[in-house]
What we know:
Blueprint: H1 2-47, E1 51-52, E2 58-59, H2 65-70, H3 74-107, H4 112-120, H5 127-138, H6 143-150, H7 163-174, H8 176-187, H9 191-201, H10 204-215, H11 217-233, H12 236-241, H13 249-258, H14 263-296
Antiparallel strand pairs: 1-2
Amino acid sequence: xxxxxxxxDGRRHRRxxxxxxxxxxxxxxxxxxxxxxxSALVVMVLLSFGTTDELGNPHFGTTLANxxxxxxxVYFTAILHSLVYAVCSSVICLVVSYPVAYVIARHxxxxxxxxxxxxxxxxxANYLIRMYGWQTLLSDEGPLLNALHHMGVPSTFHLINTQGxxxxxxxxGYIIFMVLPLxxxxxxxxxxxxxxxxxxYGSALRTFLTVTVPASSGGAYAxxxxxxxPSVGDFVSNDLLGGPGTVMVGNLIQDKFFDGQxxxxxxxxxLVLMVLLLLFLSAYVRHNARQAxxxxx
Length: 297
């Protein structure tokens, strides 16, 4: 009896030690998230229903005035601008990234990792520095507009301080988050599937549209989520490339917390933005779960 119980006791002991080890490993991250994320999130939610006094000091409260203010005027327009800009930049990133990721994954050969490294290297630079570079490129005295003027474009045409400049800046700033998931999805594809598609559809374009695109749709959806989510809350691109008519919700949140001294309204804007992003993220998760279930069937 004692001999039979020995191995079982040893396994339980090892399981207990493993549980304590996993718990100890989780504690630092859990403490960090609890102190610096969850507590700050709770304060933001509570403060969004608060008020400010005559000196601009925030106070907790139960009023819905901040939420109602967002639904009209400049705040609602800024939210719409942010959503439209994020959608446009996500679509641009998708269209540009698909052929780039396809060429590197399917035709890069032994140089694919080097090509991917060259593609990622510029994004090691600070995001703010890259946006300053775009500001110089798109400015009225910049090389791009000077070239367009020499080609006959009227001098009244401007690139900076426009909606197109903001969308271009967002697309450039986050395009790497589209390329990498697409590359990973195409890298995992079985070459035999593409060969079978060429036998069925003939042309390379039809094979790409009917075989490669559906097979890499998981990477496309992941890239859309990774580009859309940060683009909605971005404020640097609009600060440097946009104008008065291109204000995004991130700019208003920054203004309310730093210049406007209206923390409750800034918290309410952050709360509304977070709810919108959670809705988008839940739709993405449901789509992935549905797609995984279809694959299993």
